Each structure stands twice: as structure tokens, then as C-alpha cells.
């Protein structure tokens, strides 16, 4: 075997590997350029965000519910990591393929840009074809870079090598091309010339590839950082508008929380959930940052005799109400964490709708559903009757004494006591339309959830935690119970299969808030199962039947298993 052939065989396997690296660098460049372009359009037009949003919209409800249970508020971060992992694998494959089919690799990058563009323009909150620009511009940049990098891996003639001799006109197709035996460096004329579809030779442009790859990586990092910086700058106006807000003293303040409403028991949830600890469950991969000075709310639709548009200042000038209200997510499993209590400040929704001429169905109003729309395209349907039945439904501007955090709906969100969030708690609201349940299905209803969803009576053991190992003797068992807009009347606990014992209820703030409860237990050694159930003010006892969250909330008794030492 000639030395040239040995050299080719020993070096050629590195070419596909370097091609795969080129694919990753091209993908990185595409995402970086797209990030920069999205900073000029809007963050939601970024391809990762657009594709992630499209994936969320098309994911079956059961899978979404599993993701929320498994990853909690980190579900969106996990989704984006998954998308990036898939993109890396595809980039590796396209780069390796491009070493033999250069144009095919570049075309593959362009194809994924088209996928991102279609996803961006197909989102409910799309602003038009301009949303496609980041994906397309990024794909073009990535395709060009891949084409250039792979070009450095194609065969390059060493210095001093003469060009190949032209074929002799009298040579027959069957005759092997002649080689000059006097030239030890001569290669057979039958070796394929470099080009698309040809196997890459070993004499690739090492220096040119390393320089190009290094420059591409550095430039992509710089472009991506610039895009992030510009995106952050776009949100500074919204942050400044929030910082300027001073919530007026409410005309109808909440009464002081009763002294005994929040007993100090180790491991028990606090009566008021701090903003940073309040659960967040939504579909927004990028939290909207809305400038309060530019925010508007449009009220229109069936039975709205006086359509209106309200600004944030319009709401601030109205009488504000302040109420303690516990919210619960329909994705909350038995014993789950997606329930929290806060002090909300806002405008009575019933008063605002009355000014627009809206009447409840029980009073002759033609619309039975109120559809609220968020700036990110989310739609939520709420029974008009519930909003107008006298409960403290509001357009909330504040949470626990400060303007709403961005993650919880700044500048304005809906809060309706007694209803699960997916039918009441529209964050970043910008539109209210009155319609009928039979005429329009909001986002979650289209995905298999119920049209109406009052919160079910529930209870949870906070302490001891599952699989805890307390010492024998006195052990305090404590937790929370909720039945918003009905109130909690009784909580009972049992150990193993023993009798139900009534727990001590903390003082009640209102029927719209949860109640803390506790009960001492004389723990004996061994494994034990603690179970809790609640009874609401209507006399209905929490059911033992285990039902999944879909379509209108989970049911069942919460139990924890502990081992007493």
C-alpha cells in the first residue's frame, strides 16, 4: 500500500467529525443572529421561543399536565433545553452530511429556518410576517457559514503540485489512466476531483478551517450577547414604568388578618405567600414585559352597549379594592404546591362591566361567557354570571402591597375567587370580549379542559413531609385547606386506618382564603400513614375518589407515609 493511501485512510475519519463541528458552529451562529434580529422585532419572534410555543400549543393536555407535575415552574426551561438538544443533534448530522453533500447541508439549515418562521407567524400573538425575519435571517447566516466551513474541509492541492493532466483523446474507457512511474508523487488520474458528492481528500485546509471556525465562534458569541443585551434594553421601559407606579390607598381596604390565622408551626406554609414563592403556571416561554404607560384594555362584544378602552391611569383613578384571595391552579395534584394566598389590589370587574352596559344572564344579559385575551395570545373564558354575582372579582394591579410582578401579570391581571386559574386568572390582560360558551372555545377548552371549573374542596399535609422520620412522642401534624368562595368548616386527620380526629382550625380571614390547621399526634414507633380531609361550609366532605386533574381539577385525600424512630 502506498504512503499516500495510508495517509488518506488514517486522516479521513476526522473529516466527518470536523463537519459535525461545523454544523454545531453554524447552528450557534444561526441562533445568535436570530437572537439579534429578534431584539429588533420582539423577543417572542426568536426561533427557540416560537418553536417552543408551537410545541406547547400542540402538546396533548395529559403530557402538559405531566410536565407541570414533574418539573413545576421549570417546565418551560426544560422545554427550551430539549429544543436546543434536538437542534444540536440535527446540526451534528447536517454538518457531517455536508462534508459529502455541501449544498444539502446548507439547505437543511435553511429548512429549519423556515420551520421557525412558520412557527413564529402561526402563534396567536403574531404581529405578521415580520415575526418570520429572525428565523429566516438566522438560517441564511448559518447556511452560509456551514458552506464556508465545509469548503475548508474539501480537498486543497498542496503547494507545488502540478494540475492534473488532461485525459488523452485516444484513451479507451476501459483503459486505466496512465501514471508517470518516474514521478513518485504522482497519483492515479482516476482519483475523483473534489466537489459535491465526492469523497473529501486528506489534504484539507487545516489552517483556514481553524481560523474560520474560531472567528465564527467568537463572532457568534458576540452577536448573541448583543442580541441579549438589546432584548434586555427593550424591557427597560416596562421596568421603569413599574418602578414609577405608586398604588393609591384602596377605597375599600382589606381587613387586618386575624391574629390566629397564621399559627407559627415549623414546616407549615405561611398564611400569605410571598411574591417570589407564589406558584407560576402558564404557557409563556418569555415573560411579557409591558409598558404600563402604553397598556390598554378593550371591552367589547355581545351585550356590551357601551364599548370602551381603558388605560392603566384610568384604572388607577377608580376606587381600588384590596382583598386576601387564595388562587389554585387546575393542574394542582392532590397534595400539590400550586395553591397560594396573596393580598390583591385592583378594580372591581363588575363595576367596570356595568359601566359598559353588561348584564348577567340571570338579568337578561345575552352573553354567558367573558373571554379575556392576554398580550401573548392566551384566551381564558369565564362565566359572566360568576363575575357579576357579587364576589370580589377584580382587575388586579397590585400583589402583596406592590405593583404586580412581571411574572404574575404586570401591569394588569384578572382575579376571580372560587374559580381555577385557567377559567379566571388571565395575566397580562389586554382585551375582554363578551360572547357565548357555544360560540367560542378558549385555549384550554380546545385542549380538553372543562368550560366551567369551580375550585374543589381540598386539603394538604405540610408537616411532617412524606418519608420523614420523626421521633416517637408528640408530633405536630399541620397543613392547609381551601374551598374558595365557600369556606372551610372542618378538617379531620386519621392515622393509618384509625378513626378520624378533628383538627384545630386557625382563625378564618375570609371564605376566599385558605385556612391553616393543626393537630397533635402521639407518634409510636414504626411506619404510619397520615391522611387528611376537609369539609366546606356547604357541608360537602372532600371526596376520597382519586381523579386526575383533567378536565376540571383533581380530587382525593392527601396522605403521607412517615417512619417513627
Low-confidence residue ranges? 1-11, 156-163, 166-202
Give me the Rg, rounded.
Answer: 32 Å
Q: β content, as a range?
A: 15-25%
Strand order of the largest sheet: 2-1-10-5-6
User: What quaternary form is this?
Assistant: single chain
**How many strands?**
18
What spatial form do the alpha-carbon principal axes imply?
globular
**Structural class from helices and strands?**
alpha+beta
Description of the molecule:
- It is a single chain.
- The protein has 565 residues and is an alpha+beta fold.
- The chain contains twelve helices and 18 strands.
- The protein has a five-stranded mixed beta sheet. Strands 3, 4, 7, 8 and 9 form a five-stranded antiparallel beta sheet that branches.
- Helix 2 runs antiparallel to helix 7 and helix 3 crosses helix 5.
- The longest helix has 29 residues.
- It is globular and about 85 Å long.
Features:
five-stranded antiparallel β-sheet, 18 strands, 12 helices, alpha+beta, globular, five-stranded mixed β-sheet, 565 residues
What's the helix and strand layout?
Elements: H1 3-11, H2 14-41, H3 47-58, H4 61-71, H5 75-98, H6 102-121, H7 133-153, H8 206-234, H9 236-244, E1 296-301, E2 308-311, H10 312-316, E3 321-328, E4 339-348, H11 349-355, E5 369-374, E6 379-383, H12 384-387, E7 394-399, E8 402-403, E9 413-415, E10 429-435, E11 458-463, E12 473-482, E13 488-495, E14 501-502, E15 504-505, E16 515-523, E17 526-536, E18 558-564
Parallel strand pairs: 1-10
Antiparallel strand pairs: 1-2, 3-4, 4-7, 5-6, 5-10, 7-8, 7-9, 11-12, 12-16, 13-14, 13-17, 15-16, 17-18
Amino acid at each position: 500500500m502506498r504512503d499516500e493511501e495510508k495517509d488518506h485512510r488514517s486522516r479521513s475519519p476526522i473529516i466527518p467529525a470536523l463537519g459535525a463541528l461545523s454544523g454545531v458552529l453554524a447552528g450557534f451562529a444561526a441562533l445568535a443572529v436570530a437572537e439579534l434580529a429578534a431584539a429588533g422585532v420582539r423577543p417572542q419572534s426568536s426561533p427557540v421561543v416560537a418553536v417552543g410555543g408551537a410545541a406547547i400549543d400542540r402538546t396533548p393536555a395529559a403530557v402538559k399536565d405531566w410536565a407541570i407535575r414533574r418539573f413545576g415552574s421549570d417546565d418551560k426551561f426544560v422545554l427550551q433545553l430539549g429544543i436546543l438538544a434536538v437542534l444540536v443533534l440535527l446540526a451534528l448530522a447536517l454538518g457531517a452530511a455536508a462534508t459529502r453533500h455541501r449544498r444539502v447541508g446548507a439547505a437543511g439549515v435553511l429548512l429549519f429556518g423556515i420551520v421557525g418562521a412558520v412557527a413564529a407567524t402561526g402563534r396567536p400573538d403574531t404581529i405578521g410576517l415580520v415575526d418570520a425575519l429572525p428565523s429566516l435571517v438566522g438560517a441564511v447566516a448559518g447556511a452560509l457559514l456551514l458552506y464556508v466551513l465545509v469548503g475548508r474541509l474539501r480537498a486543497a492541492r498542496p503547494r507545488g503540485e502540478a494540475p492534473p493532466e488532461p485525459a488523452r483523446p485516444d484513451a479507451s474507457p476501459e483503459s486505466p489512466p496512465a501514471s508517470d512511474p518516474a514521478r513518485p508523487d504522482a497519483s492515479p488520474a482516476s482519483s475523483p476531483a473534489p466537489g459535491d458528492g465526492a469523497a473529501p481528500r486528506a489534504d484539507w485546509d487545516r489552517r483556514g478551517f481553524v481560523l474560520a471556525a474560531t472567528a465564527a465562534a467568537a463572532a457568534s458569541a458576540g452577536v448573541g450577547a448583543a442580541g441579549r443585551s438589546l432584548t434586555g434594553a427593550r424591557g427597560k421601559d416596562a421596568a421603569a414604568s413599574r418602578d414609577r407606579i405608586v398604588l393609591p390607598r384602596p377605597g375599600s381596604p382589606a381587613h387586618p388578618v386575624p391574629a390566629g390565622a397564621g399559627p407559627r408551626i415549623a414546616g407549615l406554609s405561611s398564611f400569605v405567600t410571598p411574591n417570589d414563592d407564589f406558584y407560576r403556571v402558564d404557557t409563556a416561554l418569555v415573560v411579557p414585559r409591558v409598558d404600563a404607560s402604553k397598556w390598554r384594555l378593550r371591552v367589547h362584544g355581545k351585550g356590551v352597549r357601551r364599548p370602551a378602552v381603558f388605560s392603566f391611569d384610568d384604572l388607577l383613578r377608580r376606587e381600588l379594592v384590596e382583598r386576601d384571595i387564595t388562587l389554585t391552579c387546575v393542574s394542582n395534584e392532590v397534595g400539590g404546591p400550586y395553591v397560594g394566598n396573596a393580598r390583591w389590589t385592583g378594580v372591581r370587574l363588575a363595576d367596570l362591566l356595568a359601566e359598559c352596559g353588561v348584564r348577567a344572564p340571570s338579568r337578561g344579559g345575552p352573553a354567558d361567557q367573558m373571554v379575556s385575551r392576554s398580550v401573548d395570545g392566551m384566551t381564558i373564558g369565564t362565566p359572566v354570571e360568576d363575575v357579576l354575582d357579587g364576589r370580589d372579582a377584580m382587575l388586579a394591579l397590585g400583589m402583596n402591597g406592590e405593583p404586580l410582578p412581571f411574572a404574575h401579570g404586570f401591569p394588569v391581571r384578572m382575579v376571580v375567587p372560587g374559580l381555577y386559574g385557567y377559567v379566571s386568572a388571565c395575566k397580562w390582560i389586554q382585551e375582554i370580549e363578551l360572547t357565548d360558551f357555544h360560540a367560542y372555545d378558549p385555549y384550554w377548552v380546545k385542549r380538553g379542559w372543562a368550560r366551567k371549573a369551580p375550585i374543589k374542596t381540598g386539603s394538604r399535609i405540610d408537616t411532617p413531609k412524606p418519608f420523614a422520620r420523626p421521633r416517637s412522642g408528640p408530633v405536630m401534624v399541620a397543613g392547609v385547606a381551601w374551598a374558595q368562595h365557600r369556606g372551610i368548616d372542618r378538617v379531620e386527620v386519621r392515622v393509618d386506618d384509625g378513626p378520624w380526629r378533628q383538627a384545630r382550625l386557625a382563625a378564618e380571614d375570609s371564605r376566599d382564603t385558605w385556612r391553616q390547621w393543626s393537630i397533635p399526634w402521639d407518634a409510636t414507633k414504626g411506619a404510619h400513614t397520615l391522611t387528611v380531609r376537609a369539609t366546606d361550609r356547604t357541608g360537602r366532605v372532600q371526596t376520597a375518589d382519586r381523579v386526575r386533574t383533567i378536565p376540571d381539577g383533581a380530587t382525593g385525600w392527601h396522605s403521607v407515609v412517615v417512619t417513627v424512630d
